[in-house]
Design a protein that fits this description.
Length: 158
Amino acid sequence: MNKKILVILTFFIVIAGMSTACAVSINDVSNALFGDQKEYVTLAGVDFAIPDGFSEVENESVYNEQVDNPVLDLNFSSKVYTNVSGDAIILSVSASENPANDSYAKDIAGDEANKTTINGVEGYEFTDPGFDGFSYIKDGKLVILSSTDKELFKDVIA
């Protein structure tokens, strides 16, 4: 019995040592041991977590697309994810030479939007036909999440 405890203790000491020497976080170790199935993606410099069971619809993705507007230099990137149940998540990030501020997120959400906080991120919840949305500002970029299930926003915001 004492040997089992010693082996387990040694295992945790090795893991703790690896995390400091290799910059491996406890979450990385936990994910490896217990199987966190989230995929992490970066879109236009903004990080997102993609829940287990969702896969990218690649022909729907847009990267650094220039918006045809003579007044404003604006580009956007977007990715679409779906699962076998028919749920969808759309990630969109817009960037401009002028950093976005809170009023951009509020304007996109519309007059019926509710200001709310999800995973420590302040933004605006809104509803479009068939989709729920959440808009916020991250590093001067406008981020818009859309989904068939607004509860997924908690899983996506990294």
